Amino acid sequence: MPKRKFGEKKDPFDALDEEWKDAIVRMEESGIRDRIATTALDQATLMGAKETDIDFQKARETAKEAGAVYRDGTKINKLKIAFAKRVLEDRGKQT
């Protein structure tokens, strides 16, 4: 994959296998619709498995608790910066 130039937008489909993308491009409309339906069912199955995975649920809860300090601190720091900038703007100063 060639390196992107500065300011060039990333292709949102870079993560997909080139063979898979080429196969989709060559398909007729009905084949593409079938592939969409199959992929949507695969996604539903994956999400169902995620919701019933006890180990995943425990790990997610642990990560959520551990991240609370950073999340809350980040929220407060952003609010402090925004407030201080507003005070400067209210005084006619550029931020």
Describe it.
It contains three helices and no strands. It has two domains: 17-52; 54-95. It is flat. The two termini are 40 Å apart. The mean pLDDT is 92. The protein is 74% helix and 0% strand. With 95 residues, it is mainly alpha-helical.
Index terms:
74% helix; 95 residues; mainly alpha
Cα(first) to Cα(last) distance is 40 Å
Domain count, please report it.
Answer: 2
- Low-pLDDT runs of 5+ residues are none
Averaged pLDDT: 92
List the helices and strands and how they pair.
Elements (H helix, E strand, L loop, with lengths): L17 H9 L2 H24 L1 H37 L5
Quick gist of this model?
The chain is an all-alpha fold. The protein has 3 helices and no strands.
